[in-house]
Amino acid sequence: MVGEGVGVSGATGGSGLDLHCSRCRRVCRGNELDRLLWCEGCIARAKARAKRVGWMCGVVLAAGLGAWIHFVQKPSAALLGGWIGIVLAAFWLCARAGTELWYGVLRIRHRPGGQ
Ligand SMILES: [Zn+2]
């Protein structure tokens, strides 16, 4: 039912209301939910999922960049350390960006009751 996720189930002494998490439907105090009415557990699960996806993006990009450097650039032994640093920096940046982007996608696309 539309709007069921934000239903107010009762007052709790004036310090907050009991609300349903819009993602897992667990009843929480109003001050335990964020602005999208997600509980702390759902936020933690979404961040962990986004982190896994971000790391996979970083690994894929670093592997592709490493292969391109190895097969196309054919680095000399003197510059190998610099190329390795570039690959590691690309991995870290892509992992961070992928994590943040995927977390944003999860937040925007979530459906009430979905995980
Ligand atoms: Zn939740």
Entry summary:
This protein is mainly alpha-helical. It contains two helices and three strands. It has a three-stranded antiparallel beta sheet, with no helix packed on it.
Q: Round the Cα radius of gyration to an integer and report it.
A: 22 Å
**Tally of domains:** 2
Which structural class is indicated by helix and strand composition?
mainly alpha
Terminal residue distance: 17 Å
State the helicity in percent bands. 55-70%
Q: Give the bound compounds.
A: zinc ion
Supply database-style keywords.
10% strand, mainly alpha, binds zinc ion, three-stranded antiparallel sheet, disordered N terminus, 115 residues, 2 domains
Task: Report on this structure.
- Helix content is 56%, strand content 10%.
- The chain is mainly α and 115 residues long.
- The chain has two domains: 38 residues, no CATH class; 71 residues, no CATH class.
- Strands 1-2-3 form a three-stranded antiparallel β-sheet, with no helix packed on it.
- A hairpin with a 6-residue loop joins β2 and β3.
- α1 packs antiparallel against α2.
- It is rod-shaped, with a radius of gyration of 22 Å.
- The site of zinc ion has 8 residues, from α1.
- Zinc ion binds next to α1.
Q: SSE layout and pairings?
A:
Elements: E1 8-11, E2 17-20, E3 27-29, H1 40-73, H2 80-109
Antiparallel strand pairs: 1-2, 2-3
